Amino acid sequence: MATVHPSSVDIAGTAWPVYKLEALVAGLVTCLILALITGSAQLGVLIGAAILVTRWSIGYAATRRRPVRRTHRVLSAH
Asked: Where are the bilayer-spanning segments (predicted)?
């Protein structure tokens, strides 16, 4: 049985849920903006990582509440 993710992006043959990509982008953008504004890469990395983990956790929890559809694959005789 194959699992069908309701909203995913195919990257190098692997289905990535959109919430993971959103978390990565949010963390990187926050890190870069704070590093430019404050001049402190340490602060940017710390706050960016916190935002990334928060968004990732919220997305994971939201997908666990929704039922995942499973599809059956039929093997062909070819």
From this structure: 21-37
Question: How do residues 51-70 score in pLDDT, each as one tens digit?
Answer: 999 999 998 898 887 665 66
Among 12, 56, 47, 9, smallest CA distance to 28 is for 47
Cβ(11)–Cβ(23) under 8 Å?
no
Domain ranges of the chain: 2-7+15-71
d(CA 44, CA 32): 7
- Cβ atoms of 44 and 31 within 8 Å: the answer is yes
Measured distance between the N- and C-terminal CA atoms of the chain, rounded to whole angstroms: 19
In whole angstroms, give the CA distance from residue 26 to residue 57. Answer: 13
